[in-house]
Write a structure and sequence with these properties.
Length: 288
Amino acid sequence: MISFTYLEPKSVDEALDLLARYGDEAKLIAGGTGLVNLMKQRLVHPMYVIGLRRISGLCAVQDDGALRIGALCTHHDMETLTLVREQVPILTETFQQVASIRIRSVATVGGAVAHADPNQDPLPTLLALDARVRLRSQREDREVAIGDFFTGYYETVIEPDELLTSVIIPPQPGGCGTAFLKFLPQTHDDYATVAVAARVTVDGGRITDARVALGAVAPTPIRATAVENALRGQMPIAPIVRDAAALVADAVDPTADFRGSAAYKRDMAVVFVQRAVAQAVSRARWGA
Ligand SMILES: Cc1cc2nc3c(=O)[nH]c(=O)nc-3n(C[C@H](O)[C@H](O)[C@H](O)COP(=O)(O)OP(=O)(O)OC[C@H]3O[C@@H](n4cnc5c(N)ncnc54)[C@H](O)[C@@H]3O)c2cc1C
């Protein structure tokens, strides 16, 4: 039996005060769907668990040009909020594919990002959208680009005294098309075998910008920059997309598990990048 002291701050300031005092020996808990598993497996054994659920003001989505998603918004909020669906439809498309409604009702956006499990669905989408993460402590208030946030398997740049307060989605390029595909050969509520998020902008008959990111194929979620570079400036036609997608095979480093061998996941990464980019192209509003 693991014993710990449970603390329940009612404001961000109170949480930051607790983190300043106990950060090294404490773990934050939001939805608990990730942390409780880690504690049960004795991979983490905090002396203090700091519950975030009673903090108000971290569970709203605000739109001031950028979309500011409070850390305590649940996955279910993200799949159901009209503002999110209208502004950044790939977020709705992604979060509605996470696990089951029981998990989506409690798991939070902040928890998903801080957990940094590379098999999670929202992470490649946040990479494709060029998201930023706001981290607060008593020392500073900083924003980190999501591309600089993940440092290893379940590891991030978050310091022990920092609280992730929001995830920020910058304004997206006008007319861009997006797609999130989750390859799930087994059950509908499993983690992905391969997940791909793509954002493509087409103008003047050419791809002017492409962002492609993958989950479940490396120790962190990754961008497929070779694919992006091969697409940029090209016509959005099937042979170009197919040849560009093939380049992802060298970018992934999948682990064999019950979802498939490493070779199978590498092959599926190519297939699903091709499909996701093609779908994003079909959803883009093409400039003249
Ligand atoms: C059976 C099951 C199936 C799942 N399937 C999927 C799936 O298919 N796809 C998918 O994407 N996800 C899936 N998940 C959910 C995912 O794995 C994570 O558990 C979830 O996203 C974590 O969110 P949480 O709010 O529950 O975080 P918690 O468990 O509360 O916390 C996770 C970690 O983040 C830290 N943390 C939490 N909030 C903050 C904060 N605001 N600031 C700083 N650190 C913080 C905690 O200290 C902890 O280290 C599944 C979970 C379960 C249990």
